[in-house]
Amino acid sequence: MTELLNTLYIQTPGASLHLEHDTVRVVIPDTPQRHVLPLRRLESIVVMGNIQVSSQLMSRCAEDGRPIVWMSRGGRFLNRTDGPTRGNVLLRHAQHLAHADPVARLGIAQACIAGKVQNSRQVVLRGARDATTHKTRLREIAQTLAEAVDSLPDIQDVESVFGVEGNAARVYFEAFALMLRTDTGIDFPGRVKRPPTDPANALLSFLYGLTRSVVHGACEQVGLDPYIGFLHGLRPGKPALALDLMEELRPFTADRLALTLINRKQVRLDHFETLPGGAVQLTEEGRKQVLTQWQAHRKKEHPHRLLGRKVPVALLPAAQARILARHVRGDLPGYLPWTL
After folding, report:
1. Any domain includes 333
2. Is residue 171 domain-shared with residue 28, that is, in the same domain?
3. What are the b/e assignments for 102-121, b being 16+ CB within 10 Å?
4. In which element (H, E) is residue 210 found?
5. Helix-helix angle 256-263:284-298, to 10 degrees
6. Which pLDDT tens digit goes with each residue over 43-63?
7. What residues contact 303, with CB distance under 8 A and at least 6 apart?
8. What pLDDT, on a 0 to 100 scale, did the predictor assign at position 1?
């Protein structure tokens, strides 16, 4: 059985992290209480905003293979420190060859988007079941998404796959707006990013940042190159493979969680703040609330068709990265996305 380790999230401005024997000591300004956690229980550390990390702790985490991720207070991924590159170089070579093969690249890109659109459809169908209004429109959108999935096998190039994804995303985000309860005071004007200018988009961007971080780590853990993708193009500093693999996970790990948090009023308007220039982000209390629910969400188990058993949400990125690795090595005839 795989042990689920914890992720330490630090967001208090001015806090600092230090190595103390085999533990990490968290120093919070104006707080005399000691905060010490054993390193062996931590899978990773995520710091947000103005946080100091000692060089001794960074060195120890690199030695242990425990990544430290820096994110902005709004949830934007900034950088990641880790130890030496792990994994078999032959796997990365096979990955590069698959990227250079137009047929292999197209097949993986189709699978990533098929997984994303199918999971988006399941989110919409669940919303239609629970809705008191807009049931008919939500079912129509679910049908449109089903047709998008059915069209993917006939697509002949990666650019056209993006076209299917773009059209599906447009109607899906229409459904997202319809699935928000009106009594929450939070509406969704459509996807706005870099920066988000409303609470719903700020929450989505924050959750997408968390998802990207764990998927990036899963790629490196398995030994894949996070920067050589199949759907997203190559660009310096762009983790294309991490972006590929997070596509199928976003509707479940981010979108559905965001809907739950807003509709249950676990996240409210007063959990957001507007910055100079109009950007909106979660407050410190808002981030704390979201991170608490994110951690609880990651412990839930869901069926995995290929593995034939239930898998915790926290392990889905690594499971999918291993499936992709098996495919590029030639052990599986195709990449099989995880679907609800």
Report:
1. no
2. no
3. eebbbbbbbbbbbbbbbbbb
4. helix 199-222
5. 120
6. 788 887 788 889 999 899 888
7. 309, 310, 311
8. 36
